[in-house]
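Appendix B. Raw example, untouched.
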Amino acid sequence: MVDGGAVLTYHSFPMSRPPDGSPPLRAVPRPPGAGVPTLCGVTALATAFVAVFTICVGALGAAGCASADEASKPITYSLTAKQNYEKGLVELKEENFPEAQKYFQFVKQKFPFSKYAVLAELSIADTQFARGNYTEAVDSYKTFIRLHPTHEKVEEGYAAFKVGECYYKDMPDDIWLLPPSYEKDQSAVTDALRELDDFRKKYPDSKYQKNAEPLRKEVLKRLVDHEVYIARFYLNRDHTKAAANRLQGAIKKYPGSGREPELLFALGQTYLQMGDALRSKDTFARVVSEFPSAPQARRSELYLEFIHKRYGDNPPAGSSEGSPAPPQPPVPANG
């Protein structure tokens, strides 16, 4: 039995941590009058250390790359476009990227009307991708799509898929001592979702759809994690309306993320904290009806029983007046 007159502890059922380790959404309790704890000195020291370390490693890496390019083995060009193109493919497979690029460039320049010149253009993009030069690879793949719209590799969706994969590879990573990726700027993640969705729409029968689907799921997870992070920021500062807006946005913008049950459950809790028992009831009912096997379904049933005990069949709706504008959450640089 649920006592309808009891005081309901907000977020007594925190969002469970998903199996993949995504951050749960819940208000973090703190003593009255206490501010948000910070470790400014440690953070500044750690940031400075990482910056110096990154610069040093970057310099060494750049020097190493330059040395590798300069020390590349001599190139022996053949007589035909096909022979040079095939030599480039061998070098690419063996990860001899400078040599591969030289062969492909040679084919483009010396045999411009050969079919291998077109293939060399695509292989240059593949080489840039393999080297981790994702920005250059995106430009090359998009140029190939624009110049050769009827080419087999365009019509089957390969080039468009590689564009999306480039953006996926270019997303921010979790690095020791730096803020987690969901706290960073998400523009690259948004770009990846846009390109992968564009690929899904234009090439629904492509054999590369099976490769794109796991990438898209990870992209959605990243974006939802970011919305959860911001919602938690607002909840910790008692800006429940702003938190509810973030949760609503995550549910609407990122369907298929796999996080819907916990997002809806947290949204129902937030509505109840706002005094909007009607929308809270509707949201918990949605969890039960749409996700009956989710762990949040049983918890939602308990909340529905509580709402019915306290308010009956017609729970009150909350005020439509907006709350004061909340502070903006910090968005660390990509670092």
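End of appendix B.
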